[in-house]
Predict the 3D structure of the following.
Amino acid sequence: MKLQGLAIIFILIILPITLIIGEYANAQKETIALEQKYDSSLINATHDALKAFQINTFNDAASDIADSKISSIEASVNAFYNSMESSFGMQGYSQADLQSYVPAIVYTMYDGYYIYSPYTNVADLSSGTGLNIDLNSNNIQYGFKPYVYYSCRYTMGSNSDFVINYSLDNHITVQGTVNGEPVKGTGIYSGYLLTIANSIDDEGIYYDRINNKYYYSGIEIKAESNLTEYLIDGEYKYIKLNGTKYYWDEHEENIFYILGRNRIKQVEKSANEEVYNSYVEKIKNNTSAISYYKQAYEFSTWVQENLKDLKVSNAKANMLDTGNGNIFQNKKIEYPSSNFNLHRKEVIRYSIESNLSVAIANFNNYTNSTNFQMPKLDEIEWEMLQNEVSIISFLQGLNIGGKVYNGYTVVTNSKTEEIVKEERIYITTTDGYYHKTNDEDLIKEYAQDELVLGVFDLDFEIRKDASTGTYYTHKTELGCYGSIIGQEKVDNSFGSMYEYLRNLEDIEQAKKIKQIYYISIGRERFGMYKVENPSNITSIIDKME
Amino acid sequence: MSDTFITIIAIFLAAILMFVFPLMTLADRNDDVTQLTVQTATTEFVDDIRRTGKLTEDKYNSFVSSIVATGNAYDVELEFQILDENPAKKDTQSTGTTVIGENIYYSVYTTQIETRLGNDHQYILKEGDIVSVSVKNRGATLAQTLRNVYYRVTGNDTYTIYASWAGTVTVNGK
């Protein structure tokens, strides 16, 4: 055949093949581009949900109370769907459509979590004949499943059967029977777990019975006096108890707190002088830190006496045995690598994983299309969930060209009042700046008397006063450029703040930093809202040292 | 005479069809796949920094080796915009203001970031900082070389593979 003929046949064969391969490569490119776009839309929508939740709880003084928190979370879920709708709206999806592709949204909190997912068992109250429950209605509702605590049941021998509720830090609650008796008589006992030290300089709490003083890792825990912060109209002395800050108005002679737009008077001198004086005395001589260490010492001693032999094998759940030994081994309990912390993280992981798998598997009953499955979260994400308040969102089943989209995101809330994490205590200095506790400059550049006070990080944030609409900050110090704005001077070589402080050189600045830090973290943790605190503030004050 | 001329043209055409044309198509497909790989690697790299709040030397090196594994040399440009809230705070502290002051961002670029990675082995960011990464290929890819035989696109910064991604950090790194 002639060469031209051969050439034409060659073209006829090669050209269609090239075109098809080109189209295929294009389709793959578009699928991957769409998948990346969906990934980042999901991250952005979850981040928007988090911001909505943060802003609502930040500006709301009652945000620790369950009802208020639920409404903040519902608002946050709305923010999530609104954000998704605006990213996906271009593809033609409305909010109702998107709901059928989101099998669950999980909000992990300080001591438990909520799962937002669909359910069909509804109770009809409107029919007038009482509660009418329909377990299989076709009316699919979206809402929150009941709060699940991070808890685990244990049995030791034949006369101990109890449940321990864990949280994101060292606070635990023990409920049930131990050694044949209900725990502490009432059946429930909770508190912070710290290491008990055998001598003043050892790590942990040491109680000097003779002088009635508490020491932590060699530092004496003293009372503070006259903590102040700014409100819109000036500086006030205050004390924080059970999650609320009580301010002392020296002019009007009353104690008030802020709820929404109003300043509510807790007590006036003219009405009840004795109670007023008890508040004032505690403000002038703030023993929150001492009370924290005292309660932690009593609780930790009780745990060591009664639960010291508890092992992971005593747990009535199929959990990973993290190790060697007793859960409450009295050695560096505060460190992230202690037996207690490893077990705590395992309990949290087991609880979230099992409930979430069930929720997502059940989701298949509500939609007809895809087979939803629980994706495997990686270790970094589990570490975030076990230590921070976070949101997990899932998006599955969307059609993206060559395959079906299956994605999830974990976003954490770093500005929450629910938990006082070790790294959230900042130290202020006389030059008007605040620093992270592990800022190298605090040792190298500042003298001992230039280090002032330890403050919880949220007190530096810009707030809005609801009554006047103006903005202010509780503290006037600015973030230092070495450790807050940029991070060059931060010493991250140790796994936790306790370890960092323990390894500081024995010089005066180091002692001062440790003192400021241990007292501040004690004060802040004592002032947090806890469900088991009595609601009557006066009884909390009476129990303080 | 014209017969030979036609034969030469035919051979020339045949050579182009049988060798150059498939080679160019394959090289183009190769570029497509490379573009996809580099874009995915860049997106994952940025999203990882956003999620964890820090850039470690290991992460950076594995990112660079994964894009270099495609066979080309690349120019990687990193930019971190660090959020500075102090001016805003100073403004709100002055008198009762109904407007929050403005935050400012200051930028840190590739060389500074690489120096810090060399000294501290990690670069820690906080919530609100902005990360942006862009990758361009430096040498000519095979497809570019083949195309340059026929036409040359003028300009110094010609590149075929380009990927960029940016986002805000959602977590305080530690």
Chain A touches chain B through 49 residues (CB under 8 Å).
